[in-house]
Amino acid sequence: MIGNSERKLALSNIAVAYVAFLIGTFCGLIQVFMRNDRLELPAWLDYYQVLTAHGVLLALIYTTFFIYGFLITGMSKSLGSFGPKVRLWSWVGFFITLIGTTWATVEIISGRASVLYTFYAPLKASGWFYVALALLIVGTWVMSFALIGHYVQWRRKNKGVLSPLFAYMTMATFALWIISCLGVVGAVLFQYIPWAFGFVDTINVELSRSLFWYFGHPLVYFWLLPAYMAWYLVIPKLVGTKVFSDSLARLSFLLFILFSIPVGFHHQLGEPGVTDFWKFLQVTLTFMVVIPTLMTAFSLFAVFETSGRQKGAKGLFGWVGKLPWKDIRFTSLFIAMLFFIPGGAGGIINASFQLNEFIHNTLWVVGHFHITVGAPVAMTFMGITFWLIPYLTGRTLTGTTKKLAFVQIASWSIGMLLMSTAQHVLGLLGAPRRTQYSHYNDNPTVLGWFDGFFSNTATIAIGGTILFFSAMLLIVIVLRLWFLEPRSAGQDMYAEFPLAESDTSATPKWLENWWIWIGIAIALIIIAYAIPITHLIQDAPPGSKGFINW
Amino acid sequence: MHLHKFEKIWLAFGILTLTVFLGIVGFTAFAQGQTPAGGQDTIDPEKVDVTAPFDDPGVHQIDDNTYEVVIKAMTYGYEPSEIKVPAGKEIIFTVTSKDVVHSFTIPNTKVNMMVVPGRISHKSYTFDKPGTYLTLCNEYCGTGHHFMYTEIEVFEE
What does UniProt give as GO cellular component (chain A) (predicted)? Predict the structure, then answer.
């Protein structure tokens, strides 16, 4: 069990995460019925407000707070209790993030910021919305630097020793996060805030979009890397073996830092202002993440097979039956991984340069991120929740809650499968994303979006309803684990932090020389961005004044 | 650093397919001209109505086989509202925005480009079949976003 103060810190983060989850999934439920013309909102609320809230609360707030809850716990578990300074700054960071979050949510709900979470200049939200977002990010930086401080202290006390894998991966995640946030912080501080408060009249739109996507893509890896940490470190423990290869695990995280940032133009392939050369260069860099992804897939299946064979499995696939399917902590993560196979394949399609035009801004993309962040990442976080909350509250996961957890994971899978498949199919039929219901003058193209099984917005609504049911079930489980379950007797496996051993004897020391890797990351960023960004600034057209179209 | 033999094979196979894949994408893009929409021309977003070619929006024949369609996007529609082009001819769409970011998207075709204020987007496309083609905005532009569409009449010549 970790120290009391870290437990409170982690639980506070997780509490905020699940409040955001509750409101965010409810917004999702409203959307699936509105798109199908089955629901009308009261006059004071509109679809795009609900959409903005859904995106911000789930993709940004739920993920971020949950990630810090998980990482704080793991850092305390693997490096020891926090000192007073680390504790203080973690709390300071938490409250700054919380203030930013609450403030931004209030701005959205009160209708002053229906700009969606990708900002969309020259749509202009209230200046305070951007201030709130800046606070949110600065808060996460403060929390990150508190944990980095904890790591640095440990390294000083343990000279010449590789850090535990959990701590190493946490540091890689923060390196990625801090470097990538520079883009959005730059855009907010130097473009949006002066413009929204009226210090300057106009904004350079294409520059603001490019700075956003410099941040927007690594953001998805910021969600994914903590999920990968669970796949690399928790899964082997649950199946009763060790981390497959310590050095490969570390190398794959380094490659994610290098190849997830200089790639933002693949979100802007159909945009003017950036030449084909720079778009294609970033497409090439984007695809380099295939390498660490393949390494991760190999490690995972190696872990599954080794553990199965240790338990006496025979034949080519005999090990499948030896996996601990009755352990919800394992099963939830396994299903999460399965979703990532079509999720990754879809990602390859999206980033494929000219092929992107066929799916860009269609419902296909919505389907894509629901089977990447909405299933692999979210279901991994759910699987972590099932043991992390008991671990932190000292309670145990009993039979009833365990059954509820299986129902929750099963319903999330079915709901997501229905909803995301329909979204992919409708996207291929041209249905746009981020739109309220519209029949577009009953054009024959549109009629195809409302009949058929998967080519039907009704299927999205059914899937979405199942997902909402599952989300509410998860809230019930969280509350039970927090307040109602019996206190654990101390020997209970569900109240443990499952952390696999990782043999560092063959791991080269240069993998933990951060300056080299951060240096290479920055060099790649300069190569991919310096010239096109300079061009966007120097050869900019007259800027745009703000618009409030809501 | 130790690599398992199977992992070496797995990674070599992965990297090889990746190289072939990027080679094909790059070849179709740069040798066959299949590049996504874009454009380097700029314009003052406040003066779109008085700046060529947007002072005269609509369909213009360039030569026997090529037409340019000049379109202004705005909340929530496109100008001109009526567009008629022949099938089987190259159509170059030239689009800019008078206000916020929009898209110019014809579902089921490869015409799907972002329209950014201050910049001019181009895309060339040849319609094979005549018909009424739905054209819509798929980039959020305000509360009326889902009402932003037009239809393009493609006729047999």
Answer: membrane
